[in-house]
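Its record is retained below.
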Amino acid sequence: MAVRRILGNIGKPGLTILVPPSEDMMVREIDYGHWVSSTMTQFDGSKDDLFGGTSLHLSFSSYHVPVVETDTLGRQDSSVSILESIVSVRYRGSWVADIDVLAGLQASNVFRMRAPAACEHPKNSAPGFPLTVIESWDDIIDLPDDQVVILAHGNWVARLAVVALLGKDKKKKADRVTICPPELCWKCVNPGLGSGQLCTVYVY
């Protein structure tokens, strides 16, 4: 289990250990009407952010367990407590899914791409292999079996939400989720796993 320390105030005394729900995270049902309207265009190498309306929200359930120590008996407050916490993804105010951020980032199918060496290719060149642009959260929830790119350039909130969702939930069919660096020559990218059999996601 991974533990990260965050300084902040959630209205409870002492040290609060935030834990995700033990059951599978909830994801909204697919809006097939919106999915049909998606264009599924081929990636041309340009930088873009198609998920600018994405936000993350922290909430707490009623599960709160004080950790009692022998030398704190009789006190009104506990120095350490466990609080079930939920991180929700919303897009333009509408709920998309609940995510486990730490588990998603440490999933075995999540990889970080190193910045490539300098090359002579023009900037924003199209990749040398077919790469489909994912344009909505419905497309992310119902990924095609292909190589796709999710354009959230410069938007760390959306990038984190995408990686946490696809890295944790095996039902999303993401065999490989690659976090791309801010500057990238797509001509120099090796398609790696290939298409048609596995789902490879590039988060750019």
Notes: The mean pLDDT is 82. DSSP finds four helices and nine strands in the chain. The beta strands are 15-19, 54-67, 80-91, 94-99, 110-112, 132-134, 147-150, 176-179, 200-203.
